[in-house]
Amino acid sequence: MKVLTLHGGARKRGNTATAANIVEVELKSLGHEVESIFLFEKDIKACLACGKCKQEPCSFSCIHKDDANGILQTMIAADLVIFTSPLYFWALAGPLKTFIDRTYSLYTNYHKPDHTSLVEGQRQALLITGSGPYEDNAEPVFTAFNKLQNPHKTIKAGEIYLARCTSPDKLEEEQKKHLQLFAQQLVA
Ligand SMILES: Cc1cc2nc3c(=O)[nH]c(=O)nc-3n(C[C@H](O)[C@H](O)[C@H](O)COP(=O)(O)O)c2cc1C
């Protein structure tokens, strides 16, 4: 499978990137091709909600001329997309949220019989790390991710929350095993 990891966090050696790397290494060992993009390094402008992308069916013509368009093309070509982010104020980190808003251009006619999506049938997954527990902290971000599968017409391949993350070197063996199993589940 062609796998694309889209990182929302800025710390390339932080908890999230370290956890994601375990997943990526496992996927590569299973023979999958993995591309990894750190969104904070890219020029990704916020969706203007101008509706230009909705004027022609699946035209994918965003008014912004920035890095998001190329990343969206890479996303369209992927079989599996893994979104990763540290939990920031019960939500995704800004770069990933901004990019996901730009996926508004990937589908048309949501809630109508002729709803189409350029990523229809794609597998998508979410990996989040946080310093707090899942309960009363991380749920909203997973709720939003589950809902995202509807306009995208995609398939949820998996989701994982690593709670009580302090520093990457403190990632427990148990958590590492969970991440490897998570990777296997994404391509099963
Ligand atoms: C701006 C900011 C907001 C945060 N908000 C939350 C939060 O709402 N819930 C939580 O559990 N942890 C929160 N954290 C902690 C991070 O999610 C956690 O340390 C994470 O593992 C950091 O990942 P990183 O090392 O990849 O940057 C926050 C950290 C920052 C810097």
Uncertain stretches of 5 or more adjacent residues: none
**Helical proportion?**
25-40%
How many structurally independent domains? 1
Major sheet attributes = 5 strands, parallel
Order of helices and strands: EHEHEHEEEHEH
Main β-sheet, spatial strand arrangement: 2-1-3-6-7
CATH class descriptor: Alpha Beta
**CATH architecture group name:** 3-Layer(aba) Sandwich
What does this protein structure show overall?
- This protein has helices at 15-29, 67-77, 94-102, 139-152, 173-186, and strands at 2-7, 33-38, 80-86, 107-108, 116-117, 123-129, 155-162.
- With 188 residues, the chain is an alpha/beta fold.
- It has a single domain (2-186), classed as Rossmann fold (3-Layer(aba) Sandwich), CATH 3.40.50.
- It has a 5-stranded parallel sheet with strand order 2-1-3-6-7, with helices on both faces.
- Strand 1 (2-7), helix 1 and strand 2 (33-38) form a beta-alpha-beta unit.
- Helix 1 (15-29) crosses helix 5 (173-186).
- The longest helix is centred in the N-terminal third of the chain and has 15 residues, at 15-29.
- The N and C termini lie close together (11 Å).
Which SSEs are present, and which pair or pack?
Layout: E1 2-7, H1 15-29, E2 33-38, H2 67-77, E3 80-86, H3 94-102, E4 107-108, E5 116-117, E6 123-129, H4 139-152, E7 155-162, H5 173-186
Parallel strand pairs: 1-2, 1-3, 3-6, 6-7
Antiparallel strand pairs: 4-5
Helix pairs in contact: 1-5
The structure holds flavin mononucleotide.
Flavin mononucleotide binds at residues 9, 11, 14-17, 86-90, 129-132, 137, 165.
